[in-house]
TrEMBL record:
Molecular function (Gene Ontology), one example: DNA-binding transcription factor activity
Origin species: Kocuria dechangensis
Highest taxon, organism lineage: Bacteria
Gene3D superfamilies given in the database record: Winged helix-like DNA-binding domain superfamily/Winged helix DNA-binding domain
UniProt xrefs under InterPro entries: ArsR-like_HTH, HTH_ArsR_DNA-bd_dom, HTH_Metal-responsive_Reg, WH-like_DNA-bd_sf, WH_DNA-bd_sf
Domain HTH arsR-type span(s) in chain numbering: 1-95
Protein's name in the database: Transcriptional regulator
Single Gene Ontology BP annotation: response to lead ion
Pfam families to which the protein is assigned, alphabetical: HTH_5
Length: 107
């Protein structure tokens, strides 16, 4: 394992640590989308969507292509969609009293 591997997994972990970013990545598994479509489908403001897409671009997980007045976003690598699908297939039992969106309270 190299520093590049560790960095790449850390960026993915950071992306998945936010429900909106996770929703974006899962939505982009199906097809490229415009920010307004993603914001509407995820129930967030356009400003929130803009900020989260900027984060995902910075992590190298999504790319954008301008087409006229629209910008389309897609996964940077189609294998990311496959990896997310594999993660969704994992069955994990989580104690709801232990881990919450606010953080893990396990001792």
């Amino acid at each position: 394992m190299t520093l590049a591997h560790t960095s790449a997994l850390s960026r993915l972990g950071h992306a998945l640590s936010d429900a909106t970013r996770t929703g974006i990545l899962l939505a982009l598994r199906d097809a490229p989308a415009r920010p307004s479509e993603l914001a509407r489908s995820l129930g967030v403001s356009k400003q929130v969507m803009s900020n989260q897409l900027a984060c995902l671009r910075g992590c190298g997980l999504v790319t954008s292509i301008a087409e006229g007045r629209s910008t389309w976003y897609s996964l940077a690598d189609p294998r990311l969609g496959d990896a997310l699908g594999d993660l969704l297939e994992l069955v994990v039992t989580v104690d709801p009293d232990c881990c919450s969106p606010e953080g893990c309270t396990c001792a």
